[in-house]
Amino acid sequence: MAGGTPQALEAQILQAIEAADSAVALESVRVDAFGKKGWLTQAMKALGALEGDARREMGQALNRVKETTQTAWEARRDALALAEMNTRLAIEQADVSLSPRPESIGMVHPLSRTLEELLAIFATMGFTMAEGPDIESDYYNFTALNIPPEHPARQDHDTFYMTPDSTGNRKVLRTHTSPVQIRTMENTKPPIRIIAPGRTYRSDHDATHSPMFHQCEGLVLGDGITMGHLKGCLIEFCRSFFGIADLPVRFRPSYFPFTEPSAEVDIGCRRESGTLTIGDGGDWLEILGCGMVNPKVLEYCNIDPEAHQGFAFGMGLERLAMLKYGIPDLRPFFDSDLRWMRHYGFMPYDVPSVHLGL
Question: Among 42, 57, 136, 159, which residue's beta carbon has the most beta carbons within 10 A?
Fold first, then answer.
């Protein structure tokens, strides 16, 4: 025992604790004083050599030393920990005067915004959305839509065909979303009111055409559906989409194998100095095709054309986006150019949805 007395041992331990200037040094003091071979532990073991009152008095004194020195050690440990934390805070503190790191803000693609707006408009008219596969059979893509074998769309130079299967049949990348209408009529009884957006594929590529593009088609089928319903629906859509309450809309006779009679829809516009302005201007611009569902198409779907009538329409989403937002070229839609996105993109809170409306 240092100095031969409990008081001397206590002074020695307290001096070592006070001299410890780090957590490592303080831990070394703990081992030297309280460890298995420490000063206080050895003094406790020496009690066995004493007798009677001497052992009791020495034991009580050593217990007081142990209590005092352990309390002092814990206090020194906490003080060193606080000092270390203060040192780290002083070194690692953030300089709030620095400018923040530049962060790019994500934008919504104009095609996505166009689709959301279109869906929101038709949702207010009671339409629901339907989807189908991108790879279709010849039957759903052509035959059931009354497209004859000699039609140009069936030729290899216009359509992407897959490798023939074991029976010689070739799947096709759908050239329109009309197969969704056939599948819906096969599996759903009238009345039907659906909108079918999706990717479509055609062998064409220039400033206004792309091998892959997006279409949105609609189908309404029920009792007593007339051309008047078709005109009312599409006039309301055109005026809502372009935000012009008195937008001129006209229907021109046309031909599509799957509708009869068929029509193309034009909207009023004005062309001046190489610019196009949507609205009343004495000129016209075609934006979509439509018509009453051909009775042969209904028969393919096992629907009695004498009992049910309907109308269908289809439009290109890229074309609508280009017209509304003044985008001159179709190809950058698929270039993933962030500069183009920053120019034509939209903030997320500026995009309508089926849930939030327009």
Answer: 136
Query: Residue 243 has which token pair?
Result: 């935000």
Q: Which amino acid is at 98?
A: L
Q: pLDDT per residue over 253-283, tens digit each?
A: 999 999 999 999 999 999 888 788 898 888 9
Q: Which residues contact 201 (CB under 8 A, 6 or more apart)?
A: 134, 159, 160, 173, 174, 175, 211, 212, 213
Query: Given the structure tokens 């074309």, which residue do they identify?
Result: 319
State the SS3 of 254-270.
Answer: EEECCEEEEEEEEEEEE
CA distances from 24 to 13, 16, 17, 20, 40 (A): 16, 13, 12, 8, 20
C-beta separation of 125 from 236 below 8 A: yes
> Residue 217's closest CA among 158, 162, 174, 160?
174
Return phi, psi of residue 273, to 5°. Answer: 50, 40
- The answer to whether residues 292 and 238 touch, using CB atoms and an 8 Å cutoff, is no
Q: Report DSSP letters for 148-183, one per residue.
A: -TT-GGGSTTTS-BPPP-TTS---EE-SSSHHHHHH
Phi then psi for residue 333, to 5 deg, are -55, -30
| pLDDT tens-digit readout, 128-148 | 999 999 999 999 999 999 998
